[in-house]
Specification:
28% of the residues lie in helices and 22% in strands. By secondary structure, the chain is α/β, with parallel strands linked by helices. It has one domain (2-208): Rossmann fold. Helix 1 (11-22) packs across helix 5 (183-196) and helix 3 runs parallel beside helix 4. The relative contact order is 0.16.
Amino acid sequence: MKIAIIGATGHAGSLILKEALARHLDVTAIVRNAKKLTVTVPFIEKDLYDLTTEDLVPFDVVIDAFNAPAGKEDMHQTSLAHLSEILTNTSTRLLVVGGASSLFIDPEKTTRMIDQVPEDAPFYPTAFHMSQALVHLKDTKGLRWTYISPAAFFNPTGERTGKYQLDDDFLHKNAQGESVVSMADYAIALIDEVLADKHENEHVSVVSQ
């Protein structure tokens, strides 16, 4: 299995890359600046928006760990739209490092986390554009995708416990009543899904135990 990680030098992407390498998987980093890589790994140095179908079809799985910069949060939508377009009608699977804003908080599925966020909140632009990106992803035909949301608190410095819960598209809490997951445990869950391929064309979530 050949795996590519877009954004492999970011917070989540670097931990996903580390997890894949620890399992001796065939992984390639796709980055804008290869000098930022801290491990020796095959790489493609290219802007996400310049990627083509020909670049990605050699891979069985493409992991999208792209993170839009501040002030350009709409790139969460446009970047995923570009990847969806070039991977449609191919056999390559697209796994997206999503956000918690798109998770439902009521049994009727009428309210998502983003619907409870004030528009003047500092993180609103990121939450909004990530949730809208998923809306458009769900409407894409002929694409093999999985969107994996972290818990409400996506802890970049949390420990790697090796324990997590993979759930549906609702906001879930752990045994302590907290919606939290470390990026390291999220990376485990994502790579587990890469290998298991159990949730194609589904929105799932990860929370600590």
